[in-house]
Specification:
The structure is a homodimer of 363-residue chains. By secondary structure, chain A is an alpha+beta fold. In chain A, 23% of the residues lie in helices and 30% in strands. Chain A has 2 domains: 166 residues, Aminotransferase class 4, branched-chain amino acid transferase, N-terminal domain (D-amino Acid Aminotransferase, Chain A, domain 1, 2-Layer Sandwich), CATH 3.30.470.10; 151 residues, D-amino Acid Aminotransferase, subunit A, domain 2 (D-amino Acid Aminotransferase, Chain A, domain 2, Alpha-Beta Barrel), CATH 3.20.10. In chain A, the strands form 2 sheets. In chain A, strands 1, 2, 3, 5, 6, 7, 8, 9 and 19 form a 9-stranded mixed beta sheet that branches. In chain A, strands 10, 11, 12, 13, 14, 15, 16, 17 and 18 form a 9-stranded mixed beta sheet that branches. In chain A, helix 2 crosses helix 3. The first copy, chain A, is globular. The complex binds pyridoxal-5'-phosphate (2 copies). One pyridoxal-5'-phosphate binds next to helix 5 and strand 16 of chain B. Chains A, B: Keywords: Amino-acid biosynthesis, Aminotransferase, Branched-chain amino acid biosynthesis, Pyridoxal phosphate, Transferase.
């Protein structure tokens, strides 16, 4: 691994840390952030940890007009013996680079990014909340900063990492949600950007989410953009179904995000001796399984909620209640196991966690 | 029309104006910009003209992460007798509101937006270049500014207008371009955001454009996202074909932008007594017309280039040379007529131009 000299410019002031009850999701940010610049011809340069502060950007910067950007989301956890653990961070930065490739953004060095993250977290260790179910949410992102109005890849970028102490994603804890199957709006299509974690995918999802909210459904289930038949994802989560004893999840087809939680769930289920299949699943098949009484469980997977059981699916006019609307045993066990590994409470058979050594002494 | 009190805060310094040779596209910005804020519960407020300056935004602002944004592009022209003309600006702001609707952004008052634009241009009149083919490019845009990491519509926005003096879009003037038909990547799909002018659409187009550049093609021709059979748009332009004496253009189907130039071209052609049809057109049909010697002209339409004739289309391995690679008479006449109306050199039978009265005296 190369030496990466990250400049350290600590904030003279420290904000008060939130209490457990004040923790929401993504509202509170820590005292520092990481920034690194990219300039064409020079590559990525000037990595630095600086006080958390507004970005000053020319109004013509390409991010505002052409949306050239990518991001990631992962978490750091505090163990009972006061160690800090990251969960498979290399997968997030590898995925960031795959998103970069799709969006014509120059790749970042994965080792360097992990090193930067570790140093930043080391500085902000006091910000990691210690209560059950809480963590420090990590948001790495890259934005195009060339001041130019014209559709082409930017010649300048900023790579930034900000941190936010967060509570449970769903305030009620692991509790089944109601999901609306979306028949009109499309999130992504083969040949589009569905596989990449880029801002535009989320902007285009807002309209369907707004309609779901109005109907009091918590998220939408996206179908494929071509035939609107096959299941893709649930809101910002991958999705799994237990049908007649077997677990199935949509195969990675180019329009689905390759979730870190999804991958971990597949590995765990196989480790437990269960059958897991990645393949195409149609709504029609799901409905038939439900009618035959074989749709035993359904759940979403993602960094924010980890496992989010699905208690009801509404498809056109048909309501499918799953497992009587209560959390099923596989969902429950996955949630318990993954969160326990993340928090260092259970053995980590796959070496998923990475410890953040206290490399910077901050008083 | 309501009274809209726009605060005026003029810059103490003025930048030097560019010479003809320095005019590119979207690189140089004027001394002032227009800004207006939106706050949930309060609506749009505090419209103001201020010195052109960087935006100061929290790194958690939603625009950086979820791409909730829309924009427009139009131009102001200086006539030979020193009047300032806008070209159909109401259509741009109406389209902005349709984009807003798709992106869950609150609508702006069209009259208010036009009034703001007029005042801004009035302040910046000296910036409008006077040379043949030049103009003042106008970029209105809206960005989500709530500092929050979570996928939902923002509770705060900024509506901004910036201005850039521009030269000819293609340095060589009206000259046929080579276009690559894109078979892998998709710009937009029914149910997506293709009809809206939102940042993400342009980010997702970069990859295909990069490949076209490498093959020395100037733009890509997008096919529909479902069957990859039907013609949608060319780069950031709508597209027209003259086949056996008739002009055809893809119908507005939800994934195509409703271009102001497209609409103007349709009206002009009808005015001239030509047959224009908006319908679905497949690449297969185009190829057959070409083989039969009936593909007489092809051209893109858009605010930047107005009319951009197409001299060659590459579809898979098949090269189609159109009109011997030279500009056809219909393309030529459209370019000449539209630019003449825009510049006040020809009668304006449709009342397309709107004069900007010198409402603010600036020394
Ligand atoms: C669209 C989408 N799908 C799936 C996921 C789940 O991915 P992960 O498990 O890596 O958080 C996310 C969120 O991260 C997402 O945004
Ligand atoms: C995708 C796309 N299509 C078409 C157009 C042409 O629209 P207009 O004629 O309004 O400039 C534009 C550019 O403005 C565009 O971005």
């Amino acid at each position: 691994m190369k030496e990466h000299t990250i400049q350290l410019n600590l904030s003279p002031e420290r904000k008060p840390k939130p209490q457990s009850a004040d923790l929401g999701f993504g509202k509170i940010f820590t005292d520092h952030m990481f920034i690194m610049d990219y300039t064409e011809g020079q590559g990525w340069h000037d990595p630095r940890i600086v006080p958390y502060q507004p970005l000053s950007l020319d109004p013509s910067c390409m991010i505002f007009h052409y949306g050239q950007s990518v991001f990631e989301g992962l978490k750091a956890y505090l163990t009972e013996d006061n160690r800090v653990l990251l969960f498979r961070p290399e997968r997030n930065f590898q995925r960031l680079n795959r998103s970069n490739e799709r969006l014509c953004i120059p790749a970042v060095d994965v080792d360097m990014a992990i090193e930067a993250l570790k140093q930043l977290i080391s500085v902000e260790k006091e910000w990691i909340p210690k209560w059950e179910g809480t963590s420090l949410y990590i948001r790495p992102f890259i934005i195009a900063t060339e001041p130019f109005l014209g559709v082409k890849p930017s010649s300048r970028y900023q790579f930034i990492i900000i941190l936010s102490p967060v509570g449970l994603y769903y305030k009620e804890g692991i509790k089944p949600v109601k999901i609306l199957v979306e028949n009109e709006f499309v999130r992504a299509v083969a040949g589009g950007t569905g596989e990449a974690k880029t801002a535009g995918n989320y902007a285009s999802s807002l309209k369907a989410q707004e309609i779901a909210d109005r109907k009091e459904y918590s998220q939408v289930l996206w179908l494929d953009g071509v035939e609107k038949k096959y299941i893709e994802e649930v809101g910002s989560m991958n999705v799994f179904f237990k049908i007649n004893g077997e677990v199935v999840t949509p195969a990675l087809n180019g329009s689905i995000l390759d979730g870190v939680t999804r991958n971990s769930v597949i590995q765990l289920l196989k480790h437990w001796g269960m059958t897991v299949t990645e393949r195409r699943i149609s709504m029609e098949e799901l409905r038939e399984a439900h009618q035959a009484g074989q749709l035993e469980e359904a759940f979403g997977t993602g960094t924010a909620a980890i496992i989010s059981p699905i208690g009801e699916l509404l498809w056109k006019d048909e309501k499918m209640i799953i497992n009587d609307g209560v959390t099923g045993p596989v969902s429950e066990k996955l949630f318990h196991t993954i969160t326990s590994i993340q928090g260092g409470k259970e053995p980590d058979p796959f070496n998923w966690t990475m410890e953040v050594e206290q490399c910077i002494e901050v008083k």
